[in-house]
Write a structure and sequence with these properties.
Length: about 110
């Protein structure tokens, strides 16, 4: 009975960790897209902010596949930041698989 309860508790902790990592990645992508959408900033600056936020919160290995591109949101020009990162399997170490998140924000109009 104790073994089953321990396995269940570890499973819940693991699911919570995966959800936490996904939330950090999505929040970082959104902040990077928001920053890159400002008039006068570049997509590279938005990517750099996203990488910095992910590296600070998790690890550099989670910030290696960050891309920024132009897109449309509601028929308006926008910027989209996409992050692909490993799924944490044992702690923050990954044994395979990846999580893919993206965030899109309309571009700020000048004036």
């Amino acid at each position: 009975m104790g073994t089953l309860l321990t396995a269940l508790a570890l499973g819940v902790i693991h699911v919570a960790l995966v959800i936490h990592v996904r939330h950090i990645l999505h929040a970082s992508a959104w902040e990077g897209a928001r920053y890159a959408s400002y008039y006068g900033t570049t997509f590279a600056e938005g990517r750099a902010l996203t990488v910095d936020l992910i590296s600070e919160a998790l690890s550099d290995s989670y910030a290696q596949a960050v891309s920024v591109r132009s897109s449309n949101v509601g028929n308006q020009p926008a910027v989209t930041v996409q992050v692909r990162a490993p799924i944490p399997t044992v702690g923050l170490w990954s044994l395979g698989g990846e999580v893919n998140v993206q965030a899109a924000v309309p571009l700020e109009a000048p004036g």
